[in-house]
Amino acid sequence: MGESRFLIVNADDLGLTAAVNTGIFEAHERGVVTSTSLMVERPAAIAAAEGLAEHPDLAVGLHLEPEDCRAQLERFRELVGREPTHIDSHKQAHEVEPVRAVAEALAAELRLPLRNRTVRYEGSFYGRPGGEPAPEAISPERQVELQALIDPRVKNLLNVSDVRLCSFAQVGAG
């Protein structure tokens, strides 16, 4: 057997809606999701933060939106009661200015991983062929994605491939 590789399966958009929250928590409980990213200014953010108490092994990062990023960090701390495990952004907004500089500064200040900077991001999951969104490939409540994430064959394949699941909580900023 070769050297183990590590995989973080991060579910974005926690806090977007109650249905998204439910799906992410289920994918963590029954599947391969090890990490999530919280949208602090969305309608279901409070319920999402409350749900995190029941999922202590689910790493949770800050999912920035192109607004006041520092205010979003403060809101994250209010809601979750701790620092995020990582920083990323909605629709990869942190890949371009002005969000890029702010996200990089926050990640450096907090010594946190920043998606696709200190941890490589692979966006070609179901519904994102080649990393580009393909909303027609996903049902309105993302049920097809959820079924893939909780399918026991996925965990079995990871084991056979010597890929170890981990979370952003286990990765340093590098």
CATH homology group: Glycoside hydrolase/deacetylase
β-strand amount: 5-15%
**General shape:** globular
Number of domains: 1
Proper CATH architecture: Alpha-Beta Barrel
What integer is the average pLDDT? 85
Structure annotation, total helices: 6
CATH topology type: TIM Barrel
Give me the secondary-structure category: alpha/beta
Elements, N to C (H/E): EEHEHEHEHHHE
Spatial ordering of strands, largest sheet: 2-3-4-5
- The first-level CATH class name: Alpha Beta
Low-confidence stretches: none
In which range does the helix fraction lie? 25-40%
Give the total of beta strands.
6
Largest sheet: 4 strands, parallel
Q: How far is it from the N-terminal to the C-terminal residue, by CA?
A: 27 Å
Q: Using only CA atoms, what is the Rg?
A: 16 Å
Oligomer: single chain
